[in-house]
Design goal:
169 residues; mainly beta; 3 domains; four-stranded antiparallel β-sheet; 43% strand
Length: 169
């Protein structure tokens, strides 16, 4: 059990951090008498809390506020007017790297159906560029492909190129 400094609003007992189907959450240590739980707001890849972009703060269907929720594929935005409004929006976690294939999109963090993280162009399905390793934003000096992180080493994303260097990150 992972105790925290959170306190249950219903019974005043301390809350513990637990792991569930949709990620981590706080649960009251007074269980089974108190069944109170509290969602932990999702964080991005750098463990910083995700902020809702200004244009996504209001639901475009009903005008209610949007809230960050955490699902099996990671964080997303959901309308607080649920169940009357079931509007959902994906939260793009940008890496700050432009897509080398189409030149228009940004490389964003995505999850596969099995939950594995990969990096892909946000212009899908027009651009199908994807990587399994995090791109650094630098280009390979030998073949001009993107460099990706592999441990503490930056390697070329082109499998036929064997360029690699120690990363400064």
């Amino acid at each position: 059990m992972n105790d925290t400094n959170e306190v249950c609003e219903k019974c005043g007992q301390p809350m513990a951090k637990k792991e569930g189907k949709f990620g981590e959450f706080f649960a009251c240590t007074g269980y089974p008498d108190c069944k109170n739980t509290k969602q932990i707001h999702p964080a991005d890849q750098n463990n910083e809390p995700i902020k809702i972009p200004e244009e996504d703060k209001k639901c475009e269907k009903c005008g209610s506020d949007m809230a960050i929720k955490n699902g099996k594929f990671g964080p997303f935005l959901a309308c607080t007017g649920f169940p009357n409004c079931r509007n959902l929006k994906n939260i793009e976690q940008k890496t700050g790297v432009k897509c080398p294939q189409c030149g228009q999109g940004d490389i964003v963090v995505k999850r596969s159906k099995l939950g594995k993280i990969f990096y892909s162009c946000n212009q899908y399905p027009q651009c199908k560029f994807a990587l399994w390793s995090k791109p650094t934003g630098d280009k390979c000096p030998e073949c001009e492909s993107l460099l990706v992180l592999s441990g503490n080493t930056a390697k070329c994303s082109n499998n036929s190129c064997k360029f690699e260097k120690k990363s400064q990150e």
